[in-house]
Amino acid sequence: MNGTAILAELLTTPEGKTLEFKRDLSSLRPILKSLVAFANTAGGTLVIGRADDGVIVGVDNVLAEEERLANAIADGIRPAMTPEIDIVSHEGKALLLARVPHWRGPFYLRAEGAEAGVYVRLGSTNRQAGPEILAELQRFISGLSFDQLPCPDLSPADLDPDRLQRFFAQSGRKPSQEHLETLGVLTPQAGRLTPSHGGLILFGRDAVRQRVFPDAGVSCARFRGSNKTDFLDRLTFEGTVLEALDDVPKFIRRNTRLAAKITTMRRQDIPEYPEVALREVLVNAVAHADYSLTGMRIRVAIYADRMEIENPGMLPFGMTLDDLKAGVSRIRNRVIARVLREFGLLEEWGTGYRRVTEDCRAGGYPAPEWEERGPALRVVFRPHPEVAAAADETIDVPGLETANETVNETINVRQRWFMEQLAAGKRTRWTDLAVHWDVSRATAMRDIASLHQQESIEYVGAPKNGFYRIKAPSS
Asked: pLDDT tens digits, residue range 84-143?
């Protein structure tokens, strides 16, 4: 594709991780900052001669401006950078294209120094690299991943032997010291063995792991509507991310809808969201999360109209969403990825996106949406059309019935269960609801209080010895 054709395509593309437009070279610092961010992150193209409103204004005296840009890059960026600068005509006007591949740097603005002058590209903006991103850049250059680093103050005894035995039993292997070294769960440090970051995140004793990596976990929430204003249920898993892979699907099942489609004499249950694809995305979130970031966890958020799974960490340096969709794979956490493969949870590198989209297509689900949101990667799932239709009382879908209540309806699935217990003559309390549905005391109490406020149930007797019962309708 020649330069004119490339430019024509770029001009119809919105600004993003690898593309930015500038009107002119009147202010060189923002231009140099963008080039530094492109080079440090995933490469990119800067188009000069297009205004913010999309109007092509061109570049006057383009040969002189090309030389000025080249000189500014040579003087203002370190290490030395040699982007490809082209003059391309469009609609009779000359524009400059500065194309920068992803290079091993880190690159920085000379005037701001080797630390303060480093920028990365997040979405369509340039962000100064903080200490955590700088450390990630250095690890990328050295070929090390964060989870391979040792925990120098710990010993193998800080790994939980019961966790090791339980998980390795799934693969038919014993967690011998030699095998743990091969996987990188244990790593040499100053003449002795110590857990690696990845080993502690996956198998560490709770007290030690929560002290060293308090954010290496999964949090789930169910919201009433399409935003975060009203919680219906939430849970922060205290175990490891490996254990969360078994527990998160249980949270999802109790907080999402299920429809049943009747065809001839057979019944087909349709989950609201694709279970295989969800598990694949959860496994990939565990494998690719940036555990060096503080204050960020893997999050599962269920709304009335969608589900979002988000892991901390932008795509690995050098990767774009297009690369991800094309099957390009760059492992952020080598230890965690090896262990997930050992347990059969992670398959061939680079096939996750394809498997997710194929599972959604085969089940009739909308294709998921993959987004980079600042320093996080988010996957958005939409409900199965037939499940959504079954929940809409204004839509008649032949042969489709709602198999369980949605949690954002007047009575959710937990409340229906509670009322069924009362209707059967049982003196059911909040503790029974909490245990049966594996929810917190606050969630159980909130469910019961809501039923009481709706006058669906009533409390009879003394505060300590009384009980709930179905409230009789008013005559």
From this structure: 999 999 989 999 999 999 998 899 999 999 999 999 999 889 999 999 999 999 998 888
Token pair for 89:
């005509």
How far apart CA 110 and CA 116 sit, in angstroms, is: 10
Which of 29, 223, 35 shows the shortest CA–CA distance to 120? 35
For strand 307-312 and strand 298-302, is the pairing parallel, antiparallel, or unpaired? antiparallel
Radius of gyration of the chain (CA): 27
What are the DSSP calls for 81-126, one per residue?
---EEEEEEETTEEEEEEEE---SS--EETTT-TTTT-EEEETTEE
CA–CA gap between residue 400 and residue 386 (Å, rounded): 8
CB 187, CB 152: distance < 8 Å: no
440: left (phi over 0), alpha (psi -120 to 50) or beta: beta
User: What is the DSSP code string of 383-415?
Assistant: --HHHHHHH-TT---TTEEE-S--TTSSS-HHH
Is residue 353 pLDDT above 50, yes or no? yes
Residues 6+ apart with CB under 8 A from 235: 219, 220, 221, 251, 439, 440
Residues 268-280: what's their mean pLDDT?
A: 90
- Looking at 1.10.10.10, 3.30.565.60, 3.40.50.720, 3.20.20.20, the CATH number of the domain 218-389 comes to 3.30.565.60
pTM: 0.78
User: Cα(173)–Cα(341) distance, rounded to whole angstroms?
Assistant: 13
Nearest to 253 by CA among 269, 236, 241: 269
CB 470 within 8 A of CB 423: yes
- How far apart are the C-alpha atoms of 434 and 442, rounded to whole Å? 9
CA distance 330 to 29: 32
What CATH code is assigned to 410-470? 1.10.10.10
The Cα–Cα gap between 93 and 75 comes to: 28
